[in-house]
Amino acid sequence: MKKQFFTVKDIVKITGVTARTLHYYDTINLLKPTRLSDNGYRAYSREDLERLQTILFFKEMDLSLKEISDIMKLSKKEQIEMLKMHYQTLLSKQQRLGVIINALEDYVSGKDVFNLNIFNNSPILPLEEQYNREAKIVYGETEKYKEYEKKLEKLSDEEREKLSYEFANNMEKVFKKLAKQIHNSPSSDKVQELIEEWKSYMEQSMSCDKELLECIANNYKFDNRFKNYFKQFSDEDLSDFVYQAIMYYCQNTQ
Q1: Cα(45)–Cα(33) distance, rounded to whole angstroms?
Q2: Burial of 60 (0-12, 13-18, 19+ CB in 10 A)
Q3: Residue 25 in contact with residue 59, Cβ under 8 Å?
Q4: What distances in angstroms separate CA 154 from CA 141, 160, 197, 204, 207, one per listed residue?
Q5: What angle do CA 221, 223, 228 make, to 5 degrees?
Q6: Mean of the per-residue pLDDT values for the chain?
Q7: Which of 48, 166, 246, 247 would disulfide-bridge 44, Cβ 3.0–4.6 Å?
Q8: Other C-beta atoms lying within 10 Å of the C-beta of residue 204
């Protein structure tokens, strides 16, 4: 004889959901069994099973139980229209997940967190913007920073982006060179030539006096974010090496 109803055990075996889940769906009126025996056993019809399978499908689509409950009350046509909108949401999440995966790959390969675009298209400001705002708070009242801001105001968004990109590349280039000199004295001619090169890149944005250079050197040595940034260029303490080289430059250059 053909079986007309399924027990909780049957549904668990067919779908893989737990009995606890079925009980919870019953409690929130998402999936009520067609029959309930006198002794409290639930009996599910084929229609109930189909409804459950639809619920499980929607759940895999990253919809909340509240959203699923609302969708299940709609006509087939209305469901499709709502799911079309959800499809666009999933595409955005897919793109976001791709960014996160790429950032994670870069980070575990040694790239500094400052250079990861992890907060793009996020309510959280990109790290570069966070650092820019921090710099404004810390240095905003100095004449050098005001000079820097005036220069930026004259640039278009495209020019600013290009300046930022070139600055980051130039910094990486000179720090890679300095990493190769780490076993030489910070006061050696070669290292000091590289500090002069570093300073020239800094001065593409603002003029740098002794006080500002020493301030930057201190940030390199004592700010953990910069210390971590330097680790991508050397397994040794490059931040301290650059600090010493800049301080020597400041003390011995007019």
Answers
A1: 7
A2: exposed
A3: no
A4: 20, 9, 25, 14, 16
A5: 85
A6: 82
A7: 48
A8: 11
Q: Tell me the average pLDDT across 138-148.
A: 68
> Nearest CA to 62 among 94, 31, 104, 27?
94
CA 94, CA 136: separation in Å to the nearest integer? 35
Q: Which two tokens stand for residue 47?
A: 């229609």
Domains of the chain: 8-65 (1.10.1660.10), 140-252 (1.10.490.50)
Calculate what percentage of the chain has a pLDDT beyond 90. 31
Q: Are 128 and 114 within 8 A, CB to CB?
A: yes
CB 242 within 8 A of CB 216: no
Structural Rg of the chain based on CA atoms: 31
pLDDT exceeds cutoff 60 at 122? no
Is residue 89 helix, strand or coil? helix
Answering whether pTM is above 0.70, one says no
Distance separating alpha carbons of residues 116 and 124, to the nearest angstrom: 13
Q: Which pLDDT tens digit goes with each residue over 54-111?
A: 999 899 888 899 999 999 898 888 988 888 888 888 888 888 777 777 777 776 776 6
Spatial distance between the Cα atoms of 74 and 146, rounded to a whole number of angstroms: 59
Name the one residue in this structure whose structure tokens are 């020239």. 200
Of 121-125, 140-144, 217-221, where does mean pLDDT reach its minimum?
A: 121-125
Polymer length in residues for the chain: 254
Instruction: Please name the amino acid found at residue 125.
Output: L
